[in-house]
Amino acid sequence: MTALVPLLVTLPLLGAAIALIAGRHRRVQVGVSVVTLVLTLAIATVLLVAVDASNLPFAVSVGGWPVPFGIVLYVDRLAALLVMVSSVVLLAVLLFSIGQGAADGDDDTPVSIFHPTYLILAAGIFVAFTAGDLFNLYVGFEILLVASYVLITLGNSEQRIRAGITYIVVSLVSSILFLSAIAMIYGATGTVNMVQLADRMTQLPQETQYVLHVMLLLAFAIKAAVFPVSFWLPDSYPTAPAPVTAVFAGLLTKVGVYAIIRTETQIFLENDLNTILLIAALATMVIGILGAVAQAELKRILSFTLVSHVGYMIFGIAIATPAAIGATIYYMVHHIVVQTTLFLAVGLVERRAGSTSILKVKGLMRAAPVIALLYFIPAVNLGGLPPFSGFIGKYALFDAGAAVGTPLMMTLIVAGIATSLLTLYALIRAWNLSFWREEDDSSETAQRTAYLREAPAATTVTERRVIPRIMTAGTAGMVAFSVALTVFAGPLYEICARVGGALLEPITVVQLDESVDMSGEVQQ
């Protein structure tokens, strides 16, 4: 099984190289991209089943170099689960983009550039999820960020270039912080391997640990869009093409959350900043959702809800119990799928109505009932209505917080409930105005929505375009996947609970054939 681990990274990179060489052959690029992601999905599924059945992670020292000098790829339940879910999301968005490219040509997603860049983005995500040390986690971040710089500016419009510059500057600041922290950690401990750091970090003075801890946490918080360093996201994501926005919303911030989970549970378990994390989670939830309520454009509404719901994950991490970490993993999987699905649905709305402003779009329930359904199901799921996965994940988080029972925890639970209700309000208000409102319903609605007229992009109008069936099929597939998270919530949550328990177990450093894994055991 260990032979499959490097393929999670090498397959997307090899696919990107082939797609780049075949730049003038659209069908070849499409075929290579689809086959690459299907194979990655199959490998991740096999690894998840194997690692869950054996209760032993897989660790591979690339090139046979000894720790801490070599690259260690590490796949436990958490890494395998996130790679598998990411592969599903990447594949669905790819199908959506194939349909868009077939209908629009190279206006929004130039094929010769898009496919190799998209596969490099996938490789970066997989490197980050499987990195066994901080430096290669940094490498994974940089790979996906370089690809995202290209994808976010596709189309070369003034608005996209401006948003791309903001995104690049913020990402560079985060990367500088991360790299500086890595250098300081190596200078203080002599390693960046996560297993060895778990042992050596506790030997440092508390003041040194806090400095290193804060630097890493701040770098990851920027990438995860945690308040107050989330200001860049609502203005950056909505400007990109629909498939790019969808995959960014679903995956990029979750890579930052993943990094926080790894470092908080395995490197700084005895040097916690949980109170600070709880306060940040509270601010992220509340301020994010208040921003969403004040928006009149669908993609900006979703961007603010994205920021807001990152707060739930930070809340779970800060509780720092096995039940809370398990609930956080489940909620992360839910959010990856549902947030991506909503952005794809909004992409269909934009093509059908020629706008994503809830003040401009109307009558879609009658004109496009399928799109109405594809938006409504993930919207109520994200809002946390039972019995959907959003409700299950939030209930599990609240239950874990209530078990601790401190006043701050109870405050977070109340804020989480209020955030969920406001999420439902913002998304259903958008559904009522865009889908349920008839063409002649103007006077009363205009009075009730007058406060939204000054919101950014409130009057934006694009052009109506044909919707290829493959775009609808990709979105419908993601809706079905989101429903599956509810239908199969029991088995999935059991896996997540086992992840939570394993992450908080004491780590014993064991070296076998110069290959070290993060739980003291290695599958060779």
Please provide a written account of the structure.
The protein is mainly α and 524 residues long. It is 72% helix and 2% strand. It has 20 helices and two strands. The protein has helices spanning 7-21, 26-54, 77-104, 111-130, 134-152, 158-189, 194-200, 206-224, 233-236, 242-267, 274-293, 298-319, 322-353, 364-367, 369-383, 389-404, 407-436, 443-448, 469-487, 489-503; strands at residues 58-62, 71-75. Strands 1-2 form a two-stranded antiparallel sheet. A hairpin with an 8-residue loop joins strand 1 (58-62) and strand 2. Helix 3 (77-104) runs antiparallel to helix 4, helix 3 runs antiparallel to helix 10 (242-267) and helix 11 (274-293) packs antiparallel against helix 12. It is globular.
Descriptive labels:
single chain, mainly alpha, two-stranded antiparallel sheet, 20 helices, globular, disordered C terminus
Order of helices and strands: HHEEHHHHHHHHHHHHHHHHHH
The biggest sheet, with number of strands, parallel, antiparallel or mixed sense and barrel status, is: 2 strands, antiparallel
Average of per-residue pLDDT values? 88
Low-confidence stretches: 508-524
- Rounded to the nearest angstrom, the distance between the terminal CA atoms is 8 Å
Could you say which overall geometry the principal axes of the C-alpha atoms support? globular
Helicity range: over 70%
Number of strands: 2
Radius of gyration: 22 Å
Number of helices: 20
How large is the share of residues in beta strands? Answer: under 5%
Q: Which structural class do you get from the secondary structure elements?
A: mainly alpha
Strand arrangement within the widest β-sheet reads 1-2
